[in-house]
């Protein structure tokens, strides 16, 4: 994806208030992100680790989603979970249930959508083998990396559709 600036990121959010978008902490090392290998920019808020964010490009526009992690990283958590975007299976809390507030009236009523996602939101890097998950593995599949990346994009689209429908 293209390189994003802090103001690009703050202006992209569709499911949080302007105030929240203004206060959130973007990744510290924005200039050093591996942009060419990212399908979306995802990170945990360095100042509030239960908060996570995801920014993607869609028809030349940016769409940012604010998330809240409700599980993962807990001690002794050994259940195996699969990320719903990249389908990496990980143990030890490497996959967390993340909840996004829906847009529009549904969101104002407090309606949310929850999905299991890689806790570090580095799905793009796992699919490109740029990052190994310590306690996990990528499903053994006959898909090429390009096909897995296409599937990641399709999964992102369906997550976004659930948030905005
Ligand atoms: Zn993932």
Summarize the structure in short.
The chain has one domain (6-164).
Structure description:
With 165 residues, the chain is an alpha+beta fold. The chain has one domain (6-164). The protein contains five helices and eight strands; from the N terminus they run ααββββββαβαβα. The strands form two sheets. It has a five-stranded antiparallel sheet with strand order 1-2-3-6-7. The protein is globular and about 45 Å long. The structure holds zinc ion (ZN). Residues 83, 85-86, 88, 117-118, 123 line the site of zinc ion. The site of zinc ion (ZN) has 7 residues, from strand 7.
Per DSSP, what share of the residues sits in E-state strands of 2 or more residues? 25-35%
Question: What's the helical proportion of residues?
Answer: 25-40%
Order of secondary-structure elements: HHEEEEEEHEHEH
Choose one word for the global shape: globular
| Ligand types | zinc ion
Biggest sheet: strands, sense, closure? Answer: 5 strands, antiparallel
């Amino acid at each position: 994806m293209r390189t994003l600036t802090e103001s690009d990121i703050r202006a992209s959010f569709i499911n949080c208030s302007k105030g929240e978008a203004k206060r959130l902490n973007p990744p510290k090392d924005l200039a050093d992100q591996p942009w060419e290998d990212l399908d979306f920019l995802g990170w945990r808020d360095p100042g509030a680790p239960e908060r996570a964010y995801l920014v993607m490009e869609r028809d030349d526009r940016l769409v940012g989603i604010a998330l809240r992690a409700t599980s993962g990283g807990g001690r002794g958590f050994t259940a195996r979970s699969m990320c719903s975007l990249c389908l990496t299976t990980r143990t030890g809390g490497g996959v967390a249930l993340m909840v996004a507030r829906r847009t529009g009236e549904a969101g104002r009523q407090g309606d949310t959508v929850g999905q299991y996602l890689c806790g570090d939101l580095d799905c793009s890097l796992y699919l490109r083998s740029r990052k190994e998950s310590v306690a996990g593995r990528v499903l053994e599949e006959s898909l090429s990396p390009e096909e897995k990346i296409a599937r990641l994009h399709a999964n992102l689209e369906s997550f976004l559709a659930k948030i905005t429908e």
